[in-house]
Prior knowledge:
Blueprint: E1 3-8, E2 11-16, H1 25-35, H2 53-58, E3 61-66, H3 70-81, E4 86-90, H4 96-101, H5 103-121, H6 139-164, E5 167-175, E6 182-187, E7 194-203, E8 207-209, E9 222-223, H7 224-227, E10 236-240, H8 244-256, E11 259-263, H9 275-288, E12 291-293, E13 299-304, E14 310-314, E15 319-323, E16 325-328, E17 332-334, H10 341-344, E18 367-369, H11 380-395, E19 412-414, E20 420-424, H12 427-434, E21 439-446, E22 464-471, E23 476-483, H13 487-499, H14 504-509
Helix pairs in contact: 3-6, 3-11, 5-6, 5-8
Amino acid sequence: MIAVVSTLGGRVVAFSSHHVTNYSTAAFASVASTSLRGRVRPAFGTRLASSTTSEEEEYDFDYLVIGAGSGGIASARRAASYGAKVAVVEKGRLGGTCVNVGCVPKKVMWNAASIAETLHDMKHYGFSGYDSDAISFDWPFIKEARDKYILRLNGIYERNMANSGVTSILGEASLTDGGNGGIQVVPSDGSEAISYKAKHILIATGGYPTFPGGDGVQEHSISSDGFFELEELPRRAVVVGAGYIAVELAGVLQALGTETNLVVRKEAAMREFDEMLRDTLDEEMQRQGIAIHRNTNGVKSISLDDDGLKTVHLENGEVITGVDTVLMAAGRAPLVNSLNLAGAGVKQGDKGYIQVNDYSETSASGVYALGDVCGNIELTPMAIATGRRLADRLFGGPEHSGAKVSYEYVPTVVFSHPPIGTIGVTEAQAIEKYGEDNVKVYRSKFANLYYGPWQVEPDDKPKTGMKLICAGETELVVGLHVIGMGADEMLQGFGIAIKMGATKADFDACVAIHPTASEEFVTMFPWGLSKPATGAVVSPLNGAPGPEPIIGGTR
């Protein structure tokens, strides 16, 4: 049972989770002041067996997490599973960026856009009616359904924390001067700050979207967060940015019927990705009708016209008129300004990111950080894994004393249209790292069988692109990149293989699943002619028997 801390009349109030269980954080805060009567300090549970009497008097918590995003909650629940006394401080909705204004609602909109694309394609399979009034899209409907789904997820996060015995504190936290495990929390109702002390403090507050300079830019544009507040589908939109957020949201808008302009500072979007992914996506976005404004050096200004529409002036002199919505997706920054990092001795690096070592330790003793506040692979699953490993090391006993995560070979998907899957190094990075003579690249570009019946010219069919990058004498797979239908769902399995050290011969040893797009990765030409070297503990090559589990010390 969770003890949730709120404030009434400037005093701390604790209440049991089974009184209030299915509310979002915002709803939680509103019902607390009307339905609860108790005025007592939270009842803390049994301390860790290793804690001393002096520690009991000194610390309110063994582990206090600032930020109830995916990484922070995962770390808190893992720590509580070891018997630690844990609290999480959050001023917003549970789940952080990913759940509320990131991965989850974005995927809902990507799904909606994918359905729109399927409806557009249906004539190629004998279905009619697309051009009639029988098919329409209701933006307010999907927004309401999406928002209700997010609220349900907020409640699930709350119940999961309750089931794990984690204390939830509503408010804004900051570290006290000099560190020493102290934090102050200003409750969400603005009442008097409350002080807590913890043996270990984790900062997992995430990031926030930033706006570039320029006259009228911030006043007349929205961020990626604002995208999820739109009440209706824009007629004409400008999306500014070259990263994955920009191409994802531009793809969604275009597929749903918005006339979409993508503004990039240089030649193309996704410049840090492999050139095959970058070029194929560029071709597909143009084929879909997205107008790409290149080498603009960004937005100079945005003005509001008399008709309520906007005019966007670019630094290269281009002007885009008659715009309903300007969406800025040009960058993010760590959400750390209110934490008093300098006062607590926590060092920051470029762009304000918190500096940490391989074990998530900051420069201040007993203070840790992970996720978007550190700027190292800003992905939700990465933050979750990092948080759990940190809790393992701090509270899991001697067998976890060296626990940490690896930031190498992390698979990721971009929910563009079409989607992208990628893991490992790009071709250019492989050549730079291993030398051109030590790198071998396998490529394939084809139209998915889905487009087979289409009675159009082959060049007009959307393409799937694949690349396998191998290095060294054994042709170790050091990079795998795919763009096209199904890329998002095929990458995870290949990620496991690459993480385990798979070679080209290992890929070839896996029998293809036909007919699928993913079979192309295990049939890359020339097939079966690579050096018979494996990265597996039990070789799968040349018809070898499959692996067996170790039981009683023998396999």
